[in-house]
Amino acid sequence: MYIKAFRSVTLESDSCLDPGVPMNGHRHGSDFGIRSTVTFSCDPGYTLSDDEPLVCEGSHQWNHALPSCDALCGGYVRGKSGTVLSPGFPDFYPNSLNCTWTIEVSHGKGVQMIFHTFHLESSHDYLLVTEDGSFAEPVARLTGSVLPHAVKAGLFGNFTAQLRFISDFSISYEGFNITFSEYDLEPCDDPGVPAFSRRFGFRFGVGDTLTFACFPGYRLEGAAKLTCLGGGRRVWSAPLPRCVAECGARVEGSEGTLLSPNFPSNYDNNHECIYEIETEPGQGVQLRARSFQLCEGDTLKVYDGKDASSRPLGTFTKSDLLGLTLNSTSNHLWLEFNTNGSDTDRGFQLTYTKVRVLCVYDGKDASSRPLGTFTKSDLLGLTLNSTSNHLWLEFNTNGSDTDRGFQLTYTNLYETGRVGEEIAHSPALQYGDRKKRPVRMSRLLSTVRHFVEDASGMRDGRSAEQLDSGAAPGSPFLPPPLHRGAEVLDCEPQVGQAEINPLQAVSAQRGIRSRLSAV
């Protein structure tokens, strides 16, 4: 009898088995030892299903399965060149597909596509090529089995092309193999610069943009931005815009310009143009003319307010407005430009700015006749005379910068029936603690006192409100020579003080008028 003995043999190994190579792909790395790694890549047009490296683990197994290289349905492809394949290529593509690829190349370049394989079910399955993202009017619509000629796209300046593949529910074929590359696009011509405008940008290559802005007072007609579409089209995305001076405008802000229609060319006949100016509340509007040439019979009317029912500041024709400054008493001005049916002229160029204003009225309140609206140093050297024994002053400032303000003197002029009789009183209008320190304008009205010195040297310390004489406005008056005058009205707003609007009332004795001047 024989007894057979068996021995168990264990094969020792320190590596994993060869993982293989994906179809339409490549393997990088030939060491399959424990803890070694291998990576994979795909042929152009294919996408790796899993780009995580394979690692040989201590169990002599790879950490995951071999990846595949697939021709996908759609995607985003970026680069100077590349490949686009139908899904499943070189196998037959599936049914009922709707795939979109976007190809992007370098700035200023176009996309050229070459077809190496092309076989679709004629009429039922098709490939669309576009360059603006819209497939309603594609650059090409391809179907059947005839190899197409090269197709160029990307002419719209976005340096991209899009492909869309549609297959129906039945027959399918091999599909397509397309390679693309970028190519230089011809630039656009210089489009020029519209009259009365500035252009920003100086490059005319495909995809480059130019922007335009009109000079003050003109309105842009057309597109403010143009993009070079280039390529075979050699065109800009829109016509060159125009800058026009229109009939009428509504403007807001701290400064600006108003123009007559067609300025600096002649305006047309029979115009009725309305211009509205509005600046921030608490400010006045100052209007000046840089150019003003109207024919006789053509007029510009200016109103101190929101509409034509406001107080008129004047009606101007020919060159009347040149050298003049008009100030509003509010933050609005209303202008009406009217032309007749005869000759025309160059028109006007007006500028406006916001200003702080001092408004002076000939009476007890702001409903009285205005004697003027003053800003900056307008009042220096001027003398204002009332027709009654009252003056009303309104001082308006905003929330921005401040200045020294003003110091005004007023003199009471006594009325008598005899010419040349010298009877003048010099009351002093002071405030606070006799100017030892500046006071806020909001305190001014409550601290004003009116001191009158009579012939006996006595002083009467009554408030301005108590000195309302009731003298009739516009009564006959022949001003006598001034005896003396030392009345002072001070306004010294402090830096940082904002939004103040005090009302100062100046009143005099019965039968006395006031003369106001700046010192």
UniProtKB/TrEMBL annotation:
<dbReference type="InterPro" id="IPR035976">
    <property type="entry name" value="Sushi/SCR/CCP_sf"/>
</dbReference>
<keyword id="KW-0378">Hydrolase</keyword>
<feature type="region of interest" description="Disordered">
    <location>
        <begin position="457"/>
        <end position="480"/>
    </location>
</feature>
<dbReference type="InterPro" id="IPR035914">
    <property type="entry name" value="Sperma_CUB_dom_sf"/>
</dbReference>
<dbReference type="GO" id="GO:0004252">
    <property type="term" value="F:serine-type endopeptidase activity"/>
</dbReference>
<dbReference type="InterPro" id="IPR000436">
    <property type="entry name" value="Sushi_SCR_CCP_dom"/>
</dbReference>
<keyword id="KW-0645">Protease</keyword>
<keyword id="KW-0720">Serine protease</keyword>
<dbReference type="Pfam" id="PF00084">
    <property type="entry name" value="Sushi"/>
</dbReference>
<dbReference type="InterPro" id="IPR000859">
    <property type="entry name" value="CUB_dom"/>
</dbReference>
<dbReference type="GO" id="GO:0005615">
    <property type="term" value="C:extracellular space"/>
</dbReference>
<feature type="domain" description="Sushi">
    <location>
        <begin position="14"/>
        <end position="71"/>
    </location>
</feature>
<feature type="domain" description="CUB">
    <location>
        <begin position="73"/>
        <end position="183"/>
    </location>
</feature>
<protein>
    <submittedName>
        <fullName>CUB and sushi domain-containing protein 1-like</fullName>
    </submittedName>
</protein>
<keyword id="KW-1015">Disulfide bond</keyword>
<dbReference type="Pfam" id="PF00431">
    <property type="entry name" value="CUB"/>
</dbReference>
<feature type="domain" description="CUB">
    <location>
        <begin position="247"/>
        <end position="355"/>
    </location>
</feature>
<keyword id="KW-0768">Sushi</keyword>
<feature type="disulfide bond">
    <location>
        <begin position="42"/>
        <end position="69"/>
    </location>
</feature>
<feature type="domain" description="Sushi">
    <location>
        <begin position="186"/>
        <end position="245"/>
    </location>
</feature>
